[in-house]
Amino acid sequence: MSSPATPTASHLVAAGVARLRTQVADLNQTPVWSMTPTETAQALGDATRLRAQADELTLRLAAHADATQVGLDTGATTTAVHWANTTRQTQRETASKMKLAKALEHHETVAEALAKGVILTDQAQVIVEAVDALPEGLQPQVRLEARDHLLAQAAHHDAKALRVLGRRILDVVAPEVGEAQEAKQLKAEERRAEQRARLTLHDDGHGTTYGRFQIPTHVADRSANSSAHWPTPRPAARAIPRTEGGWRSSPTSSATPPTGSHSPAASTPPWW
């Protein structure tokens, strides 16, 4: 990317961004070895929040660029592609950022928190994704409560923990809806797992068959519980040779010769 620009733009935002780049460039040339631990800790936190604030401005500019079709006159298929080409980002990255930029237009409180540096960019993304993933037909007030709750939790949890909280947010703001939604999700997961169930067997030609399987978790749990009660197979009995006068005693056993099969039948799993 290019060096700091000279603030010649007339718009306040454009000129301000140019000035900030120049100021940050000056700071980048300033040694930090003389900073005390207290000053360093404070500056590190402030710099982290400053980046969040800069991200909000960047995303707001990206949304405006998309709305005004910036870059399409150059042959780019989308503004996100143009953004990637001109800033040497990957198209996947700019597409993800553009998606968040458009989402923040519908989540003003989240955008405001990001603009103030109260939350970080990855936290903002998790919050809007969690709220947008709520089931259709939900009361608007419930959505607002869910968003506000996650914003409050962002002060105590990072993005990874927030994502977990977001998945169960209905249990907090609307427990009765959350239970019904969870049951619906579990049923859908089980249905998808049953559709993907597979069993592959391979006979090695020497009396042994190997297999691979993919089954729903609830089926695996039942099978595991069932197999715990299977009797342990006993070793196959050695055949005792028979002579013309009858059965010959084994040199290692005085057991009565079998009257039927020479080996006990192995236990068969009940679901075979």
Can you offer a commentary on this structure?
- The chain is elongated.
- It is mainly α and 272 residues long.
- Helix 2 crosses helix 4 (91-104), helix 3 crosses helix 4 (91-104) and helix 6 runs parallel beside helix 8.
- The longest helix has 31 residues, at 37-67.
- It has a two-stranded antiparallel ribbon with strand order 1-2. Strands 3-4 form a two-stranded antiparallel sheet.
- The protein has helices at 12-28, 37-67, 79-87, 91-104, 108-115, 121-132, 140-153, 159-167, 169-173, 175-195, 217-227, and strands at 198-203, 209-214, 242-243, 246-247.
- A hairpin with a 5-residue loop joins strand 1 (198-203) and strand 2 (209-214).
- It contains 11 helices and 4 strands.
- Mean pLDDT is 83; it is low at 260-272.
- It starts with 11 loop residues before the first helix and ends in a 25-residue tail after the last strand.
- The relative contact order is 0.05.
Proportion of beta-strand residues: 5-15%
Separation of termini?
65 Å
Question: What order do the strands of the largest sheet run in, or round the barrel if closed?
Answer: 1-2
Largest β-sheet summary? 2 strands, antiparallel
What shape does the CA trace take? Answer: elongated
How many distinct beta strands?
4
Q: Helix segment count?
A: 11
H and E string: HHHHHHHHHHEEHEE
Query: Over all CA atoms, what is the radius of gyration?
Result: 34 Å
Tell me the helix content: 55-70%
Low-pLDDT residue intervals, each spanning 5 or more residues: 260-272
Structural class: mainly alpha
Indicate the mean pLDDT: 83
